[in-house]
Amino acid sequence: xxxxxxxxxxxxxxxxxxxxxxxxxxxxxxxxxxxxxxxxxxxxxxxxxxxxxxxxxxxxxxxxxxxxxxxxxxxxxxxxxxxxxxxxxxxxxxxxxxxxxxxxxxxxxxxxxxxxxxxxxxxxxxxxxxxxxxxxxxxxxxxxxxxxxxxxxxxxxxxxxxxxxxxxxxxxxxxxxxxxxxxxxxxxxxxxxxxxxxxxxxxxxxxxxxxxxxxxxxxxxxxxxxxxxxxxxxxxxxxxxxxxxxxxxxxxxxxxxxxxxxxxxxxxxxxxxxxxxxxxxxxxxxxxxxxxxxxxxxxxxxx
Amino acid sequence: xxxxxxxxxxxxxxxxxxxxxxxxxxxxxxxxxxxxxxxxxxxxxxxxxxxxxxxxxxxxxxxxxxxxxxxxxxxxxxxxxxxxxxxxxxxxxxxxxxxxxxxxxxxxxxxxxxxxxxxxxxxxxxxxxxxxxxxxxxxxxxxxxxxxxxxxxxxxxxxxxxxxxxxxxxxxxxxxxxxxxxxxxxxxxxxxxxxxxxxxxxxxxxxxxxxxxxxxxxxxxxxxxxxxxxxxxxxxxxxxxxxxxxxxxxxxxxxxxxxxxxxxxxxxxxxxxxxxxxxxxxxxxxxxxxxxxxxxxxxxxxx
Lengths: 303, 303
Fold this sequence. Notes:
Two copies of one chain form a homodimer. Chain A has a seven-stranded mixed β-sheet with strand order 6-5-4-3-2-1-18. A seven-stranded mixed β-sheet of chain A has the order 7-8-9-14-15-16-17, with helices on one face. The first copy, chain A, has helices spanning 41-47, 71-80, 94-105, 162-167, 172-179, 193-196, 219-222, 239-244, 250-259, 278-285, and strands at 3-9, 23-28, 31-37, 55-59, 87-91, 114-118, 126-129, 133-139, 147-153, 159-160, 184-186, 189-191, 197-198, 205-209, 227-231, 264-268, 291-293, 299-301. Chain A is of the alpha/beta class.
């Protein structure tokens, strides 16, 4: 029942100390979603054993280079490896133009279809939905149009206990109501639902919020989620610099996690000025205890 | 009297085994020239301690992504680090459009001037010249327009031996001819030039040839140079694949070095199919003994 994110890059705009720019892979029940794709993402994927062909949907938060410059190279490698499967890209519409001009001048026709889904940085929208999950944009507050992404599993129906279905001779027509949680009327005696069913796994959720000013308007969407990645470009002594550049401090990331009552906080997008990150971690932890540094190569689950 | 090249990337189009796409830095007397700039070049520069601000001229062979996709990120980092110095880029003219569209959508105005020098893939030209060196394009034979680059130091005038200038009481008017190698007529007696002068350092040369079919038309330019980098994407059993894709085999790279009577051969641009590279090396060495693998992080000089 996998629901976990692997960090491929945690650096902000200027990579340093061998940290790479933003990229992470979310694995939900062995479906892999690539979130942002900074320069070097394909090499990081190889390093951390994430197969290119497992990626079918890529989400780009905004068009600052440290969030998308690895995409063209990854798309080329998928092409050279013989991919024929559709690739879905969720991004600002201008990204399509950036990719197309590069394909044109390299005289490359991709062997696989690319389907662009344009994000709207003015209004949160559901951009993907199937029977397992929904993916919504989160409106962030950055220097250029920028969206985060919220991945939510759907609540699953309860599972029937086969022996009980037989014991009470439950007809097929009653099963739907029971799976959705209702008790069962057996010859006038109410049988409690939890005697006939067990719970399926809990619906889990993950929000990716980079890059942004501290902005509580996102609370409406992220409150109560299991795991939040929030950018933390600076320590709080540089709050003014954070505000000028539309970024967040580690203290503010911790405050956001507390207000949103999330289960776990990951912080990343570290400025090149920080060689060691413990100060950042301590600062965020002082606001929200269950905080983790989004170190490259590490995997975090909602458990 | 430095004249050496440091390899930052040696992979062909799909990076693998943690090899990076093409990039190298040529250091001529502490002037640094970046040749090709594949994805991840800025991280490789940081790894091998090459300062971004030392790079003033960048040479891009062609517009396949594995040769230029690191440029936008490097240019952004130079901007963020406060660069104000001019940056010169030698490349196909379409690269300017690719860079400009990305600057536009990231709403970035670089703090430093970028000066594009368009290369012509039809005709070899001197694209840079000063009192120390000339840089020429080499016309390569690839699927899309592609040029190599030939860096040649100028022959230096011979150095005067001060004691001899005094001994023979040589007038200033005669110095120019003596420095260019002429003997000196001292009261009717010819003084041999090598008694009055010593040789300056030899003019050194380096050619970068990637990507290309094996094509002997380049011999005219590269014959007798000190050091040749020639692509070697495949081993010779894959000669047909090499020809289909406009690449060269390691055996052919060795043949080219022998025909061109170069001092030293570096081979690189290794296909993702080769985990270990000794077979390639042996194959090239069987044609040209002084062959070296362009391993990332290694530095090669003309000596």
